[in-house]
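Progress against Task 2.4 (sequence-to-structure conversion) is shown through the following example record, which the project officer requested during the mid-term review.
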Amino acid sequence: MDNYAVSEFKYRMSISIFMCMIQELDFSYPHLDDKQCTNLLRQLIEVYTNENNSNSDAWNNLRIFFEKQIKLIEDVNKEVNEKNSFDLGEHEFLVVKAQKYIDFMSFIDNELVYSDSPFYYISMFNGFKIAFSAEIKDNQADIQTEILLFFEKYHQTIGILDYLSFEWNLSSGEMALLNVFSRLFSITKEMNGNRFLPRDNNSDINSDNAVIMIDEADMMLHPAWEQKYITSLIAFLSDVYKDTHLHLMIATHSPIMLSDIPKQNVIYLHKNNRKIIVDNQDDHAETFGANIFRLFNDAFFLDEGAIGCFAEKKLAELLEMIDKQANQRKFEIRKRISMIGDVFLRKKIEHIFVDKLSVVNRIEELEDQMRKIQSEIIALKSADEGEDHD
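Structure tokens generated for the chain above:
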């Protein structure tokens, strides 16, 4: 990043830190002079509202504010201790918190590498983008180290609030996959080069058994990723949780994912009058390797058909038009029929249409169909002759 970008980065970061501090730190410290606190805050706010100040002023004044806050609290602590009039233990976190902010800012000033940095922009909504461009792929190891160090320093400053949100220039589907796999990875531990699932957060002993539940696994995924989801998840869990016996439960509306699961491992749930009912497995066809269209109808309780309600309404209107106005609106009807995607359904409605036409129009329609068939025959013969020459 150039100097302007670094200055802008620090300015945006200072706003994020300041807004978090306002929400999180307790400025109602009983022995602080309210006027002093108010003045400090007013001075800091003026940094962001005074157009004559530069971006660096915001960053530097934020650091000065924290230093003054620490000094003020320490002075008050000294006075209170001398009088033995108040227990300061419960308010020591104020100094600790301010010092953590200062340490984080010092890290950004002195240790964060901005040349070819993956940290290139922080938006006004605290969205923090991390880019992995083609130009910096050769330096991935250093970049990973830098990112991990940044996260470590950042996490030391957060309390009840995350004042930065991180964006990885990913699509919503990629983010969904990253969230699932990173969470599953985050609860593991590594010892002596081996990664395992511990019995609890404080344990160094591998867990013998575990239950993993994933809700709406297909959410925001492209169908091509749905096809790979189960096999990728199993491969990942087999590697990272290899010494743990797992019971995996997935809730999904995806027939693609369902086609990877044998029927005996599927539980069908549907709602009836606000009650969740388990459907009888015997009432459903086999799922493993099954046709996706068939699974849509069978496994997801599509009692009202396999097309959208809007399309169903338009088809009903088309049939009514054919019944009452086949001859008068034959060109419009023919155009609408040509838009139907399902071949069987389109042919069926074409037959209904032809039967409703007058003799003259029916002859024209049949001749038109014959011309289409003859064109298809010629095309097939040409393709066949081409294969014979090969």
